[in-house]
Design a protein that fits this description.
- The protein is mainly α and 117 residues long.
- The protein is built from 1 helix and no strands.
- The longest helix has 97 residues.
- The radius of gyration is 42 Å and the shape is rod-shaped.
- Keywords: Coiled coil, Intermediate filament.
- One of its GO terms (biological process) is intermediate filament organization.
- This is AINX protein.
- Belongs to the intermediate filament family.
Length: 117
């Protein structure tokens, strides 16, 4: 009878441990599913962020191209203005012998540029 009581006690302990193991496995499975969901969300966020960065990079490149084109155009106009100023000064020098008034000079002062693009 002592052995039977001990066996019953061990069976009860075994069942308790089995239930506890099952509960732990279920809890672990739920946590793993939750973590997988979080990983999926983070991967989506990362993908969206990469796409947004690529879009910003393209926009920046477009703006940089526009800036370079404008810089080239400004340089061309500046060169034209310098040529005009040189011609104006040369004409003014020949006139100064006829009319000794102070020699006017032209100075280029660019205005602020704003773009809606």
């Amino acid at each position: 009878q002592a052995r039977l009581a001990e066996m019953e006690s061990l069976r009860g302990a075994h069942q308790y441990l089995e239930r506890q193991l099952q509960e732990l496995e279920e809890r672990h499975s739920a946590e793993a599913a939750s973590l997988q969901g979080t990983i999926g969300q983070l991967e989506n966020d990362l993908r969206n962020t990469k796409n947004e960065m690529a879009r910003h990079l393209r926009e920046y490149q477009d703006l940089l191209n526009v800036k370079m084109a404008l810089d080239i155009e400004i340089a061309a106009y500046r060169k034209l203005l310098e040529g005009e100023e040189t011609l104006f000064n040369m004409g003014s020098t020949s006139l100064s012998t006829v009319n000794p008034v102070s020699n006017p000079t032209y100075s280029f002062q660019p205005k602020g540029f704003s773009s809606s693009t």
